[in-house]
From TrEMBL:
Name of the featured protein: Lon protease homolog
Taxonomic lineage: Eukaryota, Sar, Alveolata, Ciliophora, Postciliodesmatophora
Active site: S694, K737
Keywords: ATP-binding, Hydrolase, Nucleotide-binding, Protease, Serine protease
Originating species: Blepharisma stoltei
Signal sequence, start to end: none
GO MF annotations, alphabetized: ATP binding; ATP hydrolysis activity; ATP-dependent peptidase activity; serine-type endopeptidase activity
Family indicated by similarity: Belongs to the peptidase S16 family.
Domain of life (superkingdom): Eukaryota
Amino acid sequence: MSKTRVPILPIGHRVIFPGTTVRITISNISEFSRGKKLTMFGILPFKDPDRKQFYNYGTLVGIVHEQPVIRRESLITNFFNTPVSSFSRNDSNIIAIGVERFKLLSISEEGKNLWGSIQIEKDTNTKVSDTLIEDLRKSGVHYVQRARMAEAISRERLQRIQEEKDITNLGFYIASFLEISTPEKQALLENFNLESRTNQIIAHALNTTEEDQISEEISKKVQKNLQEQSKRIKSDGVISGIPGMSGGESDDFITKIQQKLDTLQMPENSKKYVQGELDRLRTLRSVNPEYNMIRTYLETVCALPWNTSSQDKNDIDQAQVQLDNDHFGLEKIKKRIIEYLAVRGLKKDMKGSILCFTGPPGVGKTSLGKSIADAMGRKFHRIALGGVRDEAEIRGHRRTYIGSMPGVFIHALKSCGTNNPVILLDEIDKVGKDMIRGDPASALLEVLDPAQNHTFTDHYMSVPFDLSNVLFLATSNRIETIPAPLRDRMEVIELTGYSTYEKLQIAKRFLVPKQVSENGIKLEIIEFTDDSLNKIILEYTREAGVRQLERNIGSICRGIAVEYSKALKNGSNFPQKIITNAVVEEILGIPIFENDIEERLSTPGVALGLAWTPYGGKVLIVETSKSQGSGKLRITGQLGDVMKESVLTAISWIKSKFPSIANANSSSRSDEGFDGLDIHIHFPAAAVPKDGPSAGITITTALVSLLSGVKVRSDTGMTGEISLKGNVLPIGGLKEKVLGAHRMGVKRIILPERNKKDIKDIPDYVKKDLEFICVRKIEEVLREALEDKSILGKMEIDNPKL
């Protein structure tokens, strides 16, 4: 190899390849060349950020064009990185082209410039196959087409790639515009094996694009060539810096992943895809941004339970005991779960059903999921869907994005370690929707369809995973807000609110022991009486569930904990504390609620209805008043259109049946109200929106009571829709309404005849306290609800029995 001395120009963060053109500004070029005509000089990249070390290999360049530049600041520094303010302000723009690569033998500082003794280096082989040349050309074209650059630059680069005949220049030209690190480019410059270097350039061109859409055949050939070369390189150490040849930890990781992949029982197509990703990892250096992304992906794939399942418990009796121990009541739910377990034991390949528990807050929907998992002997995972607005949360992020990760279901399976856990989708009715991030509810359709979820494909995974063995449970407060296609995929089971008796039993069995333990005291020193618990239930809470009840019990326990702590500090004995009604009022204060229904119904024109809400049943008082006027009608209480129409229907029926009462002594006529009377109908709790037709008979009864002056019985609640002909039509949510009335001490319930079949769903300990009156006509309602039945004689009735 020939040796020579040339001026050396150090540069940072840039590698110049032979055959490529470079534009450089040099200050005082005559001093740089020691007064001689400058035709060639060496370019040597800095190795470190501090610019104190050079690489051992650089590029000899020849000057093509020189143009003086007046009054430019100097762009070069001396070897010791000190300012060169003494240089001339006359600079020169140099256009040069890379000629040869050289090895730096020695370097010295002469004046303010660097001179080096160099040795020209050539490739060890100069011939490669035509196929490899064509692959290099294709990979370069593919990179240019996928990269974001100006159209003029793209055309120029594509033309050069197509026209360049010399394989060495072609490879270096493509390498010059690849978006790879300076050390990776320097490794290409220092690689003197033409075939190996060409394969590296192809690999870089494929790996630095966002998505590898190029021919799979080229990728396979490159991987094969690199694997063959790696064996030769490791044996003789000729070439350095080849992607994938970092050794050490990377090699150990790839070996471990390969071993895990070989043992995974996953579909053949999926294994082939993952194997391809592993092969790609072998061709990458650890500094490549894609290296860590693929590594994380492979770790995730190998951590999934492709063939790991937990053994189901098929002991139905034991499952029943487990459910009874964890939850009081909920008999319908428990019955359905036992049925599921029985069928599961008989039919081993049964696909997972999707159960949706819907009901008011605090009735045990979420905790029921954990109990089901324990009864079945499966792992349990809860996914909170409330407020989720990004589809990627469900289906994962594509791996083209920085920080991408799999969706919640792949994460759940990875956490559980089995492919058949119980996954609870909590608050599925509160999934949001975003115009930009997509519709998560629609993304759930594939997951919750037993006919499709055996091939669920997460965007991050890119390979299908079988979810058909998973038992999916969902919870919601309102089934109406769940999109119809999603609701159709689930079996809906309604959980109603608890009765006073159920709340008492739950408090005694679960809430009191829990709160006593959580507040650091012992069960031996505190005892809640049934009367005190009932007082808390009736006078401090009005809810379908038991959350507020638990908070109040916790407040009492904390109050006792203060006394207990003081006794321990003083060394005195602490006697057992009996929680009575007086203690409850002392700690919780004045009761929040009181049963004033009897007082409020003590005047005519007030009736008690039953209402359904997403948070359980409740009573609804309808108040009316009248005054002399022009027949105006006012309706207040934030009502919906349906309820307003019920008011108009009730008035029309009363006008037709009670003409003597409806028509006062006035010449004014009204199209809405009653002649000569201004009527005001109010529904208290005006801040709460109200709608629905089931208050029809309550409104009618209140108006008849107002016009006749006859009071409505205070122990009677009613629900039912009224038609224009006086028929009482069926309603929904009877169980919740009855439980709400029972909590308020109502003794008699008037309901439509066609809802008689729903009474069987009401617990026996509630039914024994109530009298149910089933009616078909509004006249029957009035006969049962009004204290004085003589008003019925003033009706122009169609029913001769009345």
